[in-house]
Amino acid sequence: MTDGIDSLMAQLRSEADADRDAATTPDVGIVMGSDSDMPVMREAAATLTELGFDEARLGATPPAERFSFESLVVSAHRTPDLMYAYAETAAARGLEIVIAGAGGKSADLPNMVASIAFPLPVIGVPIDERSLESVIGMPSGAPLVAVDAGKADNAALSAVQMMARSRPALEDALVAFGTDLRTDVGAVSRELAESGVEAFLADRD
């Protein structure tokens, strides 16, 4: 396992030192403290995918889509050296934003990544209610944007909002996303109004 960590750190630093075309590098990084955080953090990946991002995989050919994201497990407590290497090289590797999720009472990953990667923006995702206070508890001068517990999808939306001001394609994707939500609510509202409560609920049983 140590060899795996060492090789990951070496690859991160190699990518940071390489002269790579910005169009081929991931734009958003998704990191989590444990693979047990995946049920929550996968929603960030799903939302980015819905908005037109592709997933960049380690060692693979860069995805065809212009915008992409990467995903790693980076523990602040069990692999602090990997966490440091990831955050330290994030900007040089082409990332524009990092979404960092952590659970439990010692949810330090978002805070530490934000401190090391500064001034790169980091969005913290408390995996559960226990981790909320830890994630949002940054001192003045050490900024970390955070969403509510378990809302990794909102973290992804916020990341794309930050990128969209200078990228019309992403702005269009966000507008379409909002329009779809509005359409869905309208359809549900009409169905309820026309069928009544009991029939509406019966259709969903």
Quick rundown:
The chain has 205 residues and is α/β, with parallel strands linked by helices.
Explain how this protein is built.
The chain is of the alpha/beta class. The protein has helices at residues 2-17, 38-50, 80-89, 109-117, 129-136, 152-164, 168-195, 197-202; strands at residues 28-32, 54-55, 68-73, 97-102, 122-126, 145-146. A 6-stranded parallel β-sheet has the order 2-3-1-4-5-6, sandwiched between helices. α2 (38-50) packs parallel to α6 and α3 (80-89) crosses α4 (109-117). The protein is globular and about 60 Å long.
Strand order of the largest sheet: 2-3-1-4-5-6
Helix content: 40-55%
Range of strand content = 5-15%
What's the Cα radius of gyration? Answer: 19 Å
Number of strands: 6
What structural category arises from helix and sheet content?
Answer: alpha/beta
- End-to-end distance, in Å? 48 Å
- Helix and strand sequence: HEHEEHEHEHEHHH
Number of contiguous helices? 8
Largest sheet composition: 6 strands, parallel
How confident is the prediction overall: mean pLDDT? 93
Low-confidence stretches: none
- Taken from the alpha-carbon principal axes, the silhouette is globular
